[in-house]
């Protein structure tokens, strides 16, 4: 494009844009059949007052006065040279006094789509080069439980979720989709690194028009799009495993299970069947049993089992189900149910964990590598499962269990974060506040004054994606995008790379960090891997300048071959699964050997230890938002346009609203023993009775001079969520489900202050 238009990309879509000095005009990629509305958050983001313009340091940290960290603390502006000198000295001090294992650089977060200015890669590379490593985090908030259980029982997480059943196969072959947790378009709209074609909606429409029957098994009807014409099964929250067991039992009762497949391709079905039939605990997991737990009629469960046994059936399990206590179980049981139905590895059938959970799934995988920033080697052994951050900071030296091992939490003195917002993403924010008061120093690079930046000691302004050149790419997207700089950086903001390069210089490791390249040279260098692979295949492989001029480049895909599950199905001896038995582990001797009551040796129904109660009768679903990616650009135009009275919208069923005297648009207070927040009520029959739905991402905004714990006046649900691991196996995030009560808020409405930057204070 010309006339000032430039190609760019984001986790939620490729686009072109131009800047008029104030606002951004955005045009989705012309070839995208269903662009994401959250592109609208860029419009007024570049020069928003929430952006960070200059380096700032918490005054109490600077003056070494021992005040607790708060979001209201005073900040002093410093010149770049001074702040970098200070930070280099502090990093050297911590390293010299306590070693690299006292620096937490896990720094989880999505940051922006470009592959070079990928904040996590930059911070990891810097800490590896400067100090030989750092305490890292493993797994993700997205897939904390599934990433650990799946390799034990089926195979590698990435291959199972990404190279398996494609949307093309669903359109053409699938008869029945049992979508546990649904497949909401707001989730598949997003892919880390970028997405140039949003194909999910049309694929579901095509399948439905062909006669495929989708079942949306979720408390939220809109967890499948209208185009899927789905049957909604709003079972009780967190009871999917009981439904799966009820279905499995019904299959056995009617001899509809695939005995041959279970014998030839699976390990330990006999042990699981004893449990299913209740031979040891005298409780058969029949449809009537499942009905009592799920609230779905027994006859409906039996009918669903029969339907699933008839045609080509696909079982999917969303990330959301495993982001809860015992989240390993639905992931495992989904695979077992699919095995019993006998269709694993067939086109459009079997099991695709997380299909539709992100725009990476259900697509063909690229046949050439994409540019990737090398991170170097981390010599520190200590790590935490990512969602154990508060536990780590609050319990230095204490033991914890993870995946069969007993480990110890390191003693962290310095936390360094770039590209994430823990005060958005972590559970039980009031506990996180206590945890973030433990380290001696907290450093944050941010584009905007997020609550995490407000809670740091040293805050360094980072450019946002639109202010720098980069390359957008994902291993599941057939386009490499030149992300061209659209506007100069705001204030004194710098690229993360330049900040780390300047620190590296002060620490005497500039050349090992930069390898003598500036940003532009790095882009050309990283591009070369992809170019060479294209050239080796005899495909169009322009040099970097030509790619940059064109703005995008087509990448070839692997065939739609069903991945390793198809190969296993075709020949289970030649293509064994990478599990101990080489088969689907319906019983896992490895997991049984860990002796975890919260994750036994085969899929098991384990009810939540925090069920709804008289005091907290509603189940809160705190899932991904539809109006932004996580908390990113919450101040952007699209996100703001969907708020009511400046608050996040909470949906609840009219029956529950009526019982509490709540009307549409009322401001309500959600609360439990961990915290409270305000939100604007929207009554909706698309939310099951007994359920209340408040998505994540509204920036935490504690009431000034409020109670302790403070009321979040904006609607961040993580003040209510539970900070426990899924189980001792995976220790994943459990933020999806909590119990709360809700009431009409009758007090004076507090102002929203979260987007107001701190005013610079005197030293
Ligand atoms: P984001 O809002 O994407 O959230 O948590 P995550 O921390 O990834 O944060 C990214 C931050 O990076 C933003 O503040 C943005 O401004 C900043 N940023 C963007 N570009 C740059 C850059 O170039 N440099 C720097 N330095 N910063 C940049 C998301 C996490 O939340 C995830 S992935 C999931 S799946 C979880 N989901 C849930 C959930 O479903 N329910 C609950 N209750 N809690 C969750 N938390 C988790």
Q: What integer is the average pLDDT?
A: 97
* CATH-derived architecture of the largest domain: 3-Layer(aba) Sandwich
- Oligomeric status: single chain
* The CATH superfamily title of the largest domain: Dimethylsulfoxide Reductase, domain 2
Determine and state the CATH class of the largest domain.
Alpha Beta
Total helices: the number is 27
Largest sheet: 6 strands, mixed
The CATH topology name of the largest domain reads Dimethylsulfoxide Reductase, domain 2
What is the alpha-carbon Rg in Å? 26 Å
Query: What count of structural domains?
Result: 3
Number of strands: 30
Shape: globular
Bound compounds, each kind once, are: ligand PGD
Strand order of the largest sheet: 5-4-19-18-17-6
Q: Supply the helix-strand structural class.
A: alpha/beta
Strand content: 15-25%
Q: Span between N and C termini?
A: 49 Å
Low-confidence stretches: none
Tell me roughly what share of residues is in helical segments. 25-40%
Features:
763 residues; alpha/beta; 30 strands
Can you walk me through this structure?
The mean pLDDT is 97. The protein has 27 helices and 30 strands. It is globular and about 75 Å long. It is 30% helix and 16% strand. It starts with 5 loop residues before the first strand and ends in a 19-residue tail after the last strand. It has 763 residues and is of the alpha/beta class. It has a six-stranded mixed beta sheet with strand order 5-4-19-18-17-6. A hairpin with a 4-residue loop joins β2 and β3 (24-28). The chain folds into three domains: 56-133 and 369-395 and 407-536, Rossmann fold (3-Layer(aba) Sandwich); 146-364 and 561-594, Dimethylsulfoxide Reductase, domain 2 (3-Layer(aba) Sandwich); 618-744, Barwin-like endoglucanases, CATH 2.40.40.20. Bound molecules: ligand PGD. The site of ligand PGD has 36 residues, from α17 and β18.
């Amino acid at each position: 494009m010309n006339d000032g238009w430039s190609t760019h990309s984001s986790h939620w879509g490729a686009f072109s844009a131009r800047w008029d000095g104030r606002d951004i005009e955005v045009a989705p990629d012309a070839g995208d059949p269903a662009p994401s509305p959250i592109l609208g958050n860029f419009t007024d983001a570049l020069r928003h007052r929430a952006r960070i313009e200059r380096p700032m340091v918490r005054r109490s940290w600077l003056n070494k006065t021992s005040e607790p960290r708060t979001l209201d603390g005073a900040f002093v502006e410093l010149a770049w040279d001074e702040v970098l000198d200070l930070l280099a000295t502090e990093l050297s001090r911590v390293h010299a006094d306590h070693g690299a294992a006292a620096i937490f650089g896990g720094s989880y977060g999505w940051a922006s789509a470009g592959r070079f200015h990928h904040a996590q890669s930059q911070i990891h590379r810097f800490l590896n080069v400067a100090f030989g490593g750092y305490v890292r985090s493993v797994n993700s908030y997205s897939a904390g439980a599934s990433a650990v259980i799946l390799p034990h029982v089926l195979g590698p997480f990435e291959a199972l979720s990404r190279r398996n059943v494609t949307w093309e196969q669903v359109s053409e072959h699938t008869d029945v989709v049992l979508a546990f947790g649904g497949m909401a378009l707001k989730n598949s709209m997003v892919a880390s690194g970028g997405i140039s074609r949003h194909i999910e909606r049309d694929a579901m429409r095509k399948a439905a028009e062909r006669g495929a029957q989708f079942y949306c098994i979720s408390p939220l009807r809109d967890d499948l799009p209208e185009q899927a014409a789905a049957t909604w099964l709003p079972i009780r929250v967190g009871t999917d495993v009981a439904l799966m067991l009820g279905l499995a039992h019904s299959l056995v009762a009617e001899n509809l299970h695939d005995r041959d497949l279970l014998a030839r391709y699976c390990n330990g079905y006999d042990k699981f069947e004893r449990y299913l039939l209740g031979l040891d605990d005298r409780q058969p997991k029949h449809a009537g049993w499942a009905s009592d737990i799920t609230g779905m009629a027994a006859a409906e469960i039996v009918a669903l089992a029969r339907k699933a046994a008839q045609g080509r059936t696909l079982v999917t399990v969303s990330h959301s189900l495993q982001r809860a206590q015992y989240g390993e179980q639905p992931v495992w049981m989904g695979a077992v149910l699919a095995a019993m139905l006998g269709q694993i590895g067939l086109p459009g059938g079997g099991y695709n964990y997380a299909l539709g959970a992100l725009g990476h799934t259900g697509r063909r995988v690229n046949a050439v590598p994409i540019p990737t920033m090398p991170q170097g080697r981390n010599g520190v052994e200590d790590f935490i499962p990512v969602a154990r951050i508060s536990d780590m900071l609050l319990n230095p030296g204490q033991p914890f269990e993870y995946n069969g091992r007993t480990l110890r939490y390191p003693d962290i003195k310095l936390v360094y974060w770039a590209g994430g917002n823990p005060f958005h993403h972590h559970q039980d924010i009031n506990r996180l506040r206590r945890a973030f008061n433990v380290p001696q120093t907290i450093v944050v690079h941010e584009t905007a004054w997020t609550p995490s930046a407000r809670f740091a000691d040293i805050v360094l302004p980072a450019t946002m994606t639109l202010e720098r050149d980069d390359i957008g790419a994902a291993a599941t997207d057939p386009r490499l995008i030149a992300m061209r700089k659209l506007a100069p950086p705001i204030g004194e903001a710098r690229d993360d790379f330049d900040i780390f390069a300047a620190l590296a210089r002060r620490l005497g490791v500039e050349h090992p960090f930069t390898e003598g390249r500036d940003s532009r040279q790095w882009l050309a260098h990283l591009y070369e891997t992809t170019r060479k692979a294209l050239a080796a295949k005899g495909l169009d492989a322009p040099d970097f300048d030509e790619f940059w001029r064109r703005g995008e480049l087509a990448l070839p895909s692997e065939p739609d071959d069903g991945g390793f599950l198809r190969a296993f199905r075709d020949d289970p001896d030649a293509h064994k699964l990478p599990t101990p038995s080489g088969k689907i582990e319906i019983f896992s001797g490895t997991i049984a050997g860990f002796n975890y009551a919260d994750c036994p040796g085969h899929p098991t129904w384990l009810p939540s230890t925090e069920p709804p109660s008289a005091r907290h009768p509603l189940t809160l679903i705190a899932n991904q938002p539809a109006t932004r990616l996580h908390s990113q650009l919450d101040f952007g135009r699209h996100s703001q346009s969907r708020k009511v009275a400046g608050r996040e919208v909470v949906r609840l069923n009219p029956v529950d609203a009526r019982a509490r005297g709540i009307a549409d648009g009322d401001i309500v207070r959600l609360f439990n023993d961990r915290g409270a927040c305000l939100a604007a009520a929207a009554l909706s029959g698309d939310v099951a009775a007994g359920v209340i739905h408040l998505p994540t991402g509204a920036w935490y905004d504690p009431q000034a001079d409020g109670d302790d714990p403070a009321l979040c006046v904006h609607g961040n649900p993580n003040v209510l969520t539970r900070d426990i691991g899924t189980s001792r196996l995976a220790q994943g995030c459990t933020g999806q489900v909590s119990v709360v009560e809700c009431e009409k808020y009758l007090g004076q409405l507090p102002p929203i202050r979260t987007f107001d930057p701190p005013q610079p204070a005197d030293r």
